[in-house]
């Protein structure tokens, strides 16, 4: 059974940094496309970053230059380093996985293209 567990969410002030982690189990982590998706209250889910099995990364314009996605296949773990956080970054952040390895842009267009989801970790940024 696929399991994704996020950690690292917290409350920070504007301009601060956080690093989220997502540990996967029950599947061949190293061969899956992985991504971070966020959802703010009253808004749709937004794919903010995806990373291929060989660490090719794609970012949403809203986070490019501030966030960095990475993965350690030996530890079955994906990360999201978030710098210069803004109040608009406040959301529940979800780890997502897909067994299909399409181009990152394909996943960026629609969050539902990921087949597996974690429970989420809350990030709150105060001004």
Description:
It is a single chain. Strands 2, 4, 5, 6, 9, 10 and 11 form a 7-stranded mixed beta sheet that branches. The model has no long low-confidence stretch (mean pLDDT 96). The protein has one helix spanning 104-108, and strands spanning 3-7, 11-13, 18-25, 33-39, 46-51, 57-59, 67-72, 77-82, 91-98, 116-117, 121-126. With 127 residues, the protein is mainly beta. The radius of gyration is 13 Å and the shape is globular. It contains 1 helix and 11 strands. The protein starts with a strand and ends with a strand.
Note the total helix count.
Answer: 1
Q: Count all strands and give the number.
A: 11
Tell me what portion of residues adopts beta-strand conformation: over 45%
Taking all Cα atoms into account, the compactness measure Rg is 13 Å
3D shape:
globular
Unreliable stretches covering 5 or more consecutive residues? none
Overall pLDDT, averaged? Answer: 96
Q: Order of helices and strands, N to C?
A: EEEEEEEEEHEE
Report the structural category. mainly beta
C-alpha termini separation: 40 Å
Profile the largest sheet. Answer: 7 strands, mixed
Helix content: under 10%
